[in-house]
Amino acid sequence: MSKTYQTYTITQDGQLMLKKMERDQVETVWDRLQAQLPQCGYCDMGLSCRNCVMGPCRVDPFGEGPQQGVCGADADIIVARNLGRMIAAGAAAHSDHGRDLVEVLAEVAEGRAPGYEIKDEDKLKRVAAEYGVEIEGKDTMQIAGELANGMQEDYGTRKKGVTLINRAPEKRREIWKKLGITPRGIDRETSEMMHRTHMGVDNGWQSLLLHGLRNALSDGWGGSMIATEVSDILFGTPQPTQTSANIGVLKEDHVNIVVHGHNPVVSEMILLACQAPELIKLAEEKGARGINLVGLCCTGNELLMRHGIPMAGNHLMTELVIATGAADLMLVDYQCIMPSLGNIAACYHTRMISTSDKARFPGMEHREFHPDNAVEMARALVQEAVENYTHRGEVYIPVEPIKAMGGFSVEAIVGALGGTPEPLIEAIKEGKIRGIAGVVGCNNPKIKHDYGHVTLTKNLIANDILVGDTGCAAVANAKAGFKVAESIQYAGEGLKEVCGALGIPPVLHMGSCVDNVRILVLASALANALNVDISDLPIAGAAPEWYSEKAVSIGAYFVASGVYTVLGPMPPITGSMNVVNLLTEGLNDVIGATFAVEPDPEKAALLIRRHIENKRETLGLPYLKV
Ligand code: BF8
Ligand code: SF4
């Protein structure tokens, strides 16, 4: 019997591809989820622990079985430790990605990374000045080298605070200081979390959670912020650009190269190679009309933001793209790359290649990219993709792409506003824009694909809330058609008027997941202009379909920065009501913001609207009863 794909995904391309994959007898992430059901209830509640070999242990949520692990850890400790380790893993992933970029910056400065350059010198100088680098009389490469050094220092243990926290409003920094959660070093906080969660170290669930916030802040104002800033310096600060999205961006008559992962270090070089005249000529000789580069997930978002490269899909589309039979090469770097991809590609003609020294996958060839070999490596791989074009079997690209606009860095948003955030502040004060929401994060097969993002976003813009989105949420909203000038038709009257006048869509694509820091920077600019804290602003965050440890870190740094954040899926914390209550209520008195969990996006929209109107009321702005 045919499966009910409408319950899996709201997207037409997703439904049609799933049907094809069923016909091809190829398993997907949804099939594997079914095979895992029912999933472990202890793990789901965060009540299992295998931090040592006296265990594994679990605590009985019904109070009948054991209430402590072998070491004596109770439910509160076990849940808090597990959450802490999720934050540490997420912060490590983002921050290590940032480190890779800093290393490229250092090598560019030393002239050891041919092919890479400093694309945004102004930004280099601005950021270098924040790091206390003397600019006068120095050449670009010297500044780049000193900035890379300063950033590398931020990863260490010898500082009192990572540099870019100075971007946060003073009131926010004071709160961090008072609580003792100012992030000191990027690696330090992750390392300390692993230490604290070892058996017999931090057994205070409150102190564990507070360190969790500090660890997350070391990501948001540290590793991720460095990743975004260095990417802008090396590859250009995004400006509004036209693009398109969904599986229809693949072209039957072109060589299709798909880049998947997160770090633009590889994909930027592939983009250059795709433009090489001799490789385009070779493609033509093979019978193709050209070379078509498309993105998936966040490395796709990086290319989309800076170059308008089309976006083939988000997390849950990554397997489905291969089944088109049109992907001649898929290159992956790291993060969110399902280990299933190599096996799926074996059923089609797609060549799969992993490129990072720290990420290997079954069924993929490994070809390592380093700054010194990137140019030749990229050319060689594009050539291999071209050669694979003639090996295609059946090709199935069932939809037309949807037009979208991307490239809304903070610099671009301020640019669109005429060079100052003032018009946005005025629109918020008048109530034409009620507030701003960041809709971010992943897909998760436990939630109908894209339903959470699209429903929430639609509801928010209809109620005059400007949406900035990133990651897989941003891709969902692009496919839904929310990112063209005409999409103001979905907006409420006030938002429609403001966006119409500025020529921008009501949903602004702000980039990849590390680019969530752009939302922090924008929030800080608004807070500073109003002389208030971030937690006083009518803003909110949401991750309606999150799955990843990185999303836990993002959620935690949003909240620790004062941004009320609504999660779709419940994190594994329900085994401890103490932890649940602290995160969803208690934190308000401590940090001025909380988490909420609401899987129904209509209800999540209501929570966000209510929160925004409450903040408006406190600021003395006209407000509505929601
Ligand atoms: O960093 S949104 S599924 S691709 S974790 Fe992954 Fe989630 Fe997508 Fe990007 Ni972010
Ligand atoms: Fe069990 Fe304690 Fe070891 Fe965890 S740390 S596995 S609860 S003994």
Which overall shape is indicated by the principal axes computed on the Cα atoms? globular
- CATH architecture label name of the largest domain: 3-Layer(aba) Sandwich
Level of helix content? Answer: 40-55%
What is the CATH class of the largest domain? Alpha Beta
Going across the biggest sheet, name each strand in turn: 6-5-4-7-8-9
Largest sheet: 6 strands, parallel
SS strand fraction: 5-15%
| Gyration radius from CA atoms, angstroms | 24 Å
User: Which regions have little confidence, pLDDT < 50, spanning 5+ residues?
Assistant: none
Give the integer mean of the pLDDT values.
97
Structural class: alpha/beta
The number of helical elements comes to: 24
Distance between the termini: 45 Å
As for the number of domains, it is 3
Structure explained in plain terms:
- The chain has 626 residues and is α/β, with parallel strands linked by helices.
- The protein has three domains: 75-233, Substrate Binding Domain Of Dnak, Chain:A, Domain 2 (Up-down Bundle), CATH 1.20.1270.30; 247-391, Rossmann fold; 408-618, Rossmann fold (3-Layer(aba) Sandwich).
- Helix content is 48%, strand content 11%.
- The chain is built from 24 helices and 16 strands.
- The chain has a six-stranded parallel sheet with strand order 6-5-4-7-8-9.
- Helix 18 runs parallel beside helix 24.
- The protein is globular and about 65 Å long.
